[in-house]
Amino acid sequence: MSTAATTTAGTAGDTPVFSVGGLWKVFGPKADRVPGDPELTALGPAELRSRTGCTAAVRDVSFDVRKGEVFVVMGLSGSGKSTLVRCLTRLIEPTAGTIAIDGEDVRAMDGARLRELRRHRAAMVFQHFGLLPHRTVLDNVAYGLQIQGVGKAERRERAAEVVAKVGLEGMEQRRPAQLSGGQRQRVGLARALAVDPEVLLFDEPFSALDPLIRRDMQEEVVRLHREEGRTMVFITHDLQEALKLGDRIALMRDGRVVQLGTPEEIVGSPADDYVRAFVRDVPREQVMTVRTAMRPAASAEEADGGPAVRPDATVSEAIEAVARAGGPARVMEQGRCLGVVDSAALLDVVAGVAGMTGVAGAAAPARRREPTPTPAAVSEEPV
Ligand SMILES: Nc1ncnc2c1ncn2[C@@H]1O[C@H](COP(=O)(O)OP(=O)(O)OP(=O)(O)O)[C@@H](O)[C@H]1O
């Protein structure tokens, strides 16, 4: 889901939307003493609990959420996802560490500023989003604007726009009880969107939906993100959902982020055995891109002919192109041939014997041949 992100994520000089440093949330008696005590921080969850009665739900977590990206927080139940994301707007008060939004210190905000943060800047979409049962869809969506003091005519107009945007046109006058679970979730999404927040925070919003509706909603999020480029933080315990939606994924275990990276990095270069076990059953060809399997062109003919694929095409897409053409495909970017992929290298990725090496072509060294100068331009559009 990188289309909007790559165009809107901006340059390295951009201030991140959220910047989190050394964040801790400890529940329990005298929680404050835990983060600063090396003896206690060295303990595992069970030992910490038995020694102090405390649970470290978030342990020394640092990351940035970049403008325009979908940042997924993933982990099993109890790994600390909800606590971490609630700390971002201080729905849960952190125990230690720093949080900034657009460079502004969230921990230093007073009550009024915090309310403003939650209402205007970082809106949350919950799994159980508490729609008002006696209000219509339109009024539920307009509710956040009403709280903000927006006049009736304007809020109805804006609510109608977002209702249409999330595909609920024609249902404006229904009440929540007259909607399906998926439609209700769309109302919750529309309500968060109506206040036009800089960042949307999703707390497992789709986990109660049945699989088909869930897929629809995931596609809705992908579409909204592509159209608007809005920054999103998305909690899920579902790996497929994380891989589908995330530009980057923070994988949590026992309060720590064990790996932070793109779906391709997480699947292709798991940081440890835990992550490796987590991603073992992922169909690699649907996540890994052709960069992983690419080698330099072996000859001028190879660089000049054959089907073209984009560098961010999946291995699965390249397999189709190679199978149709009966020979290697060229990886093309802005008219330049970056390298080629052949069936053997693509198969290596599927089999998991080619990893993320960071060096194009190094995944299949035995087959590496001498590079050929790339042609200046080609006529075909990459698939
Ligand atoms: N108010 C609380 N008091 C004590 N412990 C808590 C509290 N809230 C959460 N915890 C503990 O903190 C840890 C992390 O919980 P959290 O809800 O953040 O996990 P999660 O990854 O979001 O789980 P789930 O997917 O089940 O929602 C768990 O061990 C949980 O029991």
Characterise the protein shown here:
Keywords: ATP-binding, CBS domain, Nucleotide-binding, Transport. Belongs to the ABC transporter superfamily. The protein folds into two domains: 216 residues, Rossmann fold; 66 residues, CBS domain Like (Alpha-Beta Complex), CATH 3.90.1280. It is globular and about 65 Å long. The N terminus is likely disordered. The chain has a six-stranded mixed beta sheet, with helices on both faces. The protein is α/β, with parallel strands linked by helices.
What ligand species are in this complex? adenosine-5'-triphosphate
Question: Pairing-aware structural class of the strands and helices?
Answer: alpha/beta
Poorly predicted runs are 2-12, 357-380
Known CATH architecture of the largest domain: 3-Layer(aba) Sandwich
What is the count of DSSP helices, taking H or I runs of 4+ residues? Answer: 15
Going across the biggest sheet, name each strand in turn: 6-7-8-3-9-10
Report the top-level CATH class of the largest domain. Alpha Beta
Shape: globular
CATH topology of the largest domain: Rossmann fold
DSSP helix fraction: 25-40%
Give the distance, in angstroms, between the N- and C-terminal Cα atoms.
17 Å
Query: Average pLDDT across residues?
Result: 86
Task: Provide the number of structural domains.
Answer: 2
User: Strand fraction band?
Assistant: 15-25%
The gyration radius over C-alpha positions equals: 24 Å
Say which CATH homologous superfamily of the largest domain is assigned. P-loop containing nucleotide triphosphate hydrolases
- Give a quick account of the main beta sheet: strands, pairing sense, barrel closure: 6 strands, mixed
